[in-house]
Each structure stands twice: as C-alpha cells, then as structure tokens.
Amino acid sequence: MAEIINMPRLSDTMEEGVVAKWLVNVGDTIKEGDILAEIETDKATMEFESFHDGVLLHVGIKEGETAAVDTLLAIVGEKDEDISGLLSPSSSSGQLDLVDQINESENLIQNTDDQPTLKVTAPVLNDSFQIVTMPRLSDTMEEGTVSSWLVNVGDIVKEGDILAEIETDKATMEFESFHEGTLLFIGINVGETAKVDSLLAVIGDPNSDYKTAIDNFGINPIANDKVEIEDNSTEIITETSEIINESVEEPISNNENSRVLASPLAKKIAKEKSIDLNLINGSGDNGRIIKEDVENFTPTVISDFTDNSLSTIVESGTESFEDIENSQMRKTIARRLKESKFSAPHYYLSVEFEMDNAIAFRNQYNSLPETKISFNDIVVKACAIALKHHPRVNSQWFDDKMRLNHHVHVGVAVGVPDGLVVPVIRFANEKSIPEIGSLVKSYASKARDKKLSPDEMQGSTFTVSNLGMFGIEEFTSIINQPNSAILSVGTIVKKPVVRDDKITIGHTMKITLACDHRTVDGVTGSLFLQTLKGFVENPVTMLV
Questions:
Q1: Bridge partners of 149?
Q2: pLDDT tens, position by position, 484-500
Q3: 220 is a domain residue
Q4: Buried b / exposed e across 478-492, counting CB within 10 Å, b at 16+?
Q5: Can 521 be counted among the known catalytic residues?
Q6: Residue 206 preceded by cis peptide, ω within 30
C-alpha cells in the first residue's frame, strides 16, 4: 500500500520548509532509513529520511519550492502502483484515505467473532498526544530496564530532550523524545523491566483524554502501579518502534540541544572512516559539517578507564557485605558467556612474541606530529591482516552452516563499571594503525559515558581482549559467539631471551588464541598465529 509522506515539522517553530535538494528520483527504490531530501527550515538545512520501504512514485514539492508543514511531499509504494486516488483533488487528503483504511482494518480485527477481542497496539491517529513504547535499542534486545527517568510527570518535553536511561542487554543508553508536549503518564517505573513495545510513556496536551487509549493499548508485562498526571483523558498516537529504532542509530547532537548537521557527502566519508560526527565542529552554514571538516579532522587522545565505584571503607574486624542486583547487562553477559563456554568446544593456543621491533616501531611512529598509537592498535591491525590470510579463523558457526566472512570487523573488548562491551572496528584491515587507535579511544570513551550506539557494537567477526595494561602476563578469554576465535593479549615483559645462541635482554609478550573446534582446527589456528607473529614482530611489513 502506498504511503503518503508530508512536509515534516523539523523544528518547534517551523511552519513551512524549502526542498533544497532531492537525493532520490521518481522510480528509485528506497529503503527505510535512506535520505530522501535536504529540507531547509527556519533554523537550518536538515536531511529527511524515509521511514518506509518501496519505490518513490511521486514528488509533490520540487527543488527550490516552499510548502507548508503537512503538505504532500512524496508518495512511496510498490512499483507501478495506482496512486491516482491519493492525488485526486476531490479528496481532502490522501493521508485521510490511508487513515480510514487503517482504522477499518483495526475494527475488523477487534470485532471478529471467530476469536477473542485483541488489544491493538497499532497507532491510533490523533494530534492530542503520543504513546511512546519501549524501543528496541539493539538487534538482540527483547526487554529493557528503565535505569532512570530524567523528566517527571507534568514536565514540559521538547523534541530531542532525553526522557530516560534504558538498560539493554548490551549497554545503558539515553532515549530521547521525538515529540513535544507534557509528560502525561509513565508506564514503566525506575528499576522495572518490560518487553519491547510495552507502553513506556505518554506525551501530549495536559487537557487531553488518554486513559481509554492506555487501557486499549495492551497490558505491560509488569504489575506495579503506574504514574500519571491528574487531569482529563485523551486520544492517542502510538509511535511505532521502527521509527524509534531508526532514530536511535543517528548521532544525537553537535551540542546539547541540536541534531548533527552534516552534508550527505560528509556523512558518507565519516562512515567510511568510522569517524564520530559528534566530535567534529562544522565550518559550514549554521555549524553544518562539510566534506573538508571530516577530511581535516584529527582525533584527540582520551584517558584510560578506571573504576573505583565499588570501593568501600570498612572498619577493622567488622564483617560487611552488600547485595547488588544484577543489571540487565550483567545478566546478559553471564547468560551468553555460559552458553558460549558450554556449547562451543574451546581450546587454547599460546605463543610468545618478541616485541623489540614493535617497541622501536611504535616509538618512531609516535615521534610524528599529532600521532599516537598503542601496542594494542598494532595487534588489532596485525590481526585484521592475518585474518584475510586465514578466513576460517574469521568465520562464524551457526547450527545449519559455517559462514566464512570476506570482510574483517574486529571487536575490541572494553571494560565499563557494569561489565564488558565490545565495540567493533569495521573493515579493520582497510584502516591505518592511527585510524584504529582513534576509533578505539573514541569507542572506549563513549562506552564509559554509555553513548555507544547498537550499530557500533554489532557485526564483529573476531575479538581482541587486552589486559596487558593491567600487568596481566597471560590469560584466556571466552569466545564471543557466533565468532570462531578470540585473542587474549598480555603485557610486555623485559626478560632474558636467546638470540643467535646467546642470552640477551629482550622484550616479549604472550598471547593466547581461544578457538571453536567446530570451525577452527589446531593446524588452522597455529598457522594464523604464525602469520600474526610475523606482523607483530615486524610491524613495518604491515605498511607494505
């Protein structure tokens, strides 16, 4: 069915917009999340994305034309679909026809005699208020826990304001509002856990009637009392979880109150280089990030993580303990590690690398202006190149197949106060060592601030875990399934070594490769380590 797209309200004061540029043409296939056009508002020029899949059938506003908010902007549907009815001047609005069809469908569902009445969670279309549901903030998320509410019932909420911190199976993330109005109702209290698409909150007009809509929405899988504003009741707009999910993946802001403004080319280059646009100051109009800003961006160094959050002073001779409720992240980590350890047949291969050449290489590299790399950056880069030589180590195991990945996405384990997260360096083999270092530092900082997006933690084909900075000489790790292997990196130790039948002082580093025997045999893992050893012990070979 064709979907009408109207001129959006992209700012709180926007009454009309100008189509600065169309980025797609009539007849083009569009996916959800694709940028349709650049729209100039009263405040800035912003990209407008599609929330529908299909073919662009009609453009209602040409480039350079100005139109009021809610004017027909475009129609997306199936190829060769008849949209004449939506364009008919006799119809007050094509959107109304679609709304009527939706409502009619919902009534059919609710009034069917063959089955019990269903509580429909589809949108009830009205402008007086909006229902906000528990969003799906990661690909594996099935439920979420509200860590904290940053607004209270009765507070005025603006689009872009942070409503709550939601704990998923991967991280605790801020969840922003996509609506303006008063917070009328809270459906999930702090500390409560609810399924995705459960009623999270209601935002709208304080004089509206929303209680009936809440009753018809469905029952959340939690039984505690809910908080609501004492006022009249209302009609509803249920925000679909798909729209919420798509919005979460976008960078939030260049500052506290605005979204990232960047040209499509700048975004494309930033994505290719894995650069966080939030770290860039734009030189274009209204602070817009342009191509040159991305190309000239130099990352800053971020300090290492330390955690003193659990330290407690206890009097001598006193028994003391504290029970800490397991967080959603901790529960998920425990479940997945247990599944991995007891379902995948782990075995371990340990080797010792000579690091004198790597030390000299790093020192020489860091003597360059505005350049700083770590030994971990060298290891990640070496792993990425070695994985291209040994694709079975870069594989993944599924019940019905084994997947040999031709791309290399290296996950780097980062410790945070509540557990462990694994941001992913995508296409690591194609990146320079400084680029890898910059990304690792940026991801580590975002992880500690709970700012990692789901996309930044998905898709790894191999993982590196480094405890060397804590003085750990040797350890083993549990494979991050469905991956086939994970590398444990120890500290660099100064000790006597034998070279040319002579004892001399050198620097060595122990590493251990954990392998899934279902995909990686001993010989395969050993050959991979030999290749890795060559790159780490002679890093200059990675530059050839």
A1: 164
A2: 999 999 999 999 999 88
A3: yes
A4: bbbbbbbbbbbbbbb
A5: yes
A6: no
Is residue 98 packed enough to be buried (19+ CB in 10 Å), middle (13-18) or exposed (0-12)?
middle
Q: What are phi and psi of 350, to 5 degrees?
A: -115, 140
Can you spell out the DSSP letters for 378-416? Answer: HHHHHHHHHHHH-TTTTEEEETTEEEE-SS--EEE-EEE
Asked if the structure places residue 466 within a domain, the reply is: yes
Q: Residues 279-295, buried b or exposed e (16+ Cβ, 10 A)?
A: bbebebeebbbbbebbe
Q: How far apart are CA 189 and CA 222, in angstroms?
A: 10
Distance in angstroms between the alpha carbons of the first and the last residue of the chain: 54
- Mean of all residue pLDDT scores within the chain: 78
Place of tokens 């959340």: 220
Instruction: Return d(Cα 403, Cα 406) in angstroms, integer.
Output: 9
In a domain, 357, yes or no: yes
CATH classification at residue 368: 3.30.559.10
Output helix, strand, coil percentages for the chain, rounded to the nearest 5: 25, 30, 45
As a whole number of angstroms, the distance between CA 425 and CA 435 comes to 10
pLDDT tens digit string along 221-260?
343 445 555 444 333 333 333 333 333 333 333 433 345 6
What is the chain's Cα-based Rg? Answer: 27
Beta-carbon contacts of 345 under 8 Å, excluding residues fewer than 6 positions away, are 516, 517, 518
CA 378 → CA 10, 486, 515, distances in Å?
A: 44, 16, 21
Q: Could you report the per-residue pLDDT of 117-161, keeping only the tens digit for each?
A: 333 333 344 567 888 888 877 656 788 888 889 899 989 988 878
Distance CA 143, CA 196 (A): 5
Q: Which of 372, 490, 389 is CA-nearest to residue 432?
A: 372
Inter-residue long-range contacts of 487-494, CB under 8 Å, 24+ positions, other chains counted: 487/379, 487/383, 487/462, 487/463, 487/511, 487/512, 487/513, 487/514, 488/512, 488/513, 488/514, 489/376, 489/379, 489/464, 489/465, 491/467, 492/355, 492/359, 492/375, 492/468
325 domain-assigned: no
For residue 2, what are the domain limits?
A: 1-118
* SS3 category, 457: helix
**Element (H or E) spanning 527, and its range?**
helix 522-537
Q: Which two tokens stand for residue 337?
A: 């590690």
The CATH number of the domain holding residue 218 is: 2.40.50.100
Q: Angle 138-438-266 (CA atoms, 0-180°, nearest 5)?
A: 75
102 & 206 share domain: no
390 catalytic per annotation: no
